Amino acid sequence: xxxxxxxxxxxxxxxxxxxxxxxxxxxxxxxxxVLSGIGSAKGTGLAGEAGTGLLCEDPSKFGKVMILQVIPxxxxxxxxxxxxxxxxxxxxxxxxxPQLTVAQGMQxxxxxxxxxxxxxxxxxxxxxxxxxxxxxxxKKPDDWSKGMVLCITVEFYAILSLLASMLMIINISA
Length: 174
Hints:
This protein is mostly helical. 83% of the residues lie in helices and 0% in strands. It is built from six helices and no strands. Helix 2 (15-57) runs antiparallel to helix 3, helix 4 (74-90) runs parallel beside helix 6 and helix 5 packs antiparallel against helix 6 (144-170).
């Protein structure tokens, strides 16, 4: 019996070895969805707070305020896409509980981290930028598109996080 076979036998005899790989993989996928969702909730909340102040004064700006508020919500969607894709690649949707080694579970966990952390922090930052953009809309309504460009700049980093996670998940060998 060589070292890799002994390691496999040992892992199958321990709790960590029998469910640890799947647990780590699901934890990573869950963090991608949850942390991105938390960031989006915080970001859309920040923009919404700024928007309600403006709408008290000028309800006709609702459409533009709504667009600026929704933008930080995209990270939550990206996190959900990473969660779904990771769960799909694990084979969890096949109806059979997948057997993942701890090493494979760790690969999924690490692959989901860019979206988890990138989604959390970029959504909050984008919410702050969107709130500032609502201030532009209040004071210089014709320049509100400049605020949109600033929001899109932050979005670029959320997209990079999505791309990084997706590329890593694609390259995990089953």
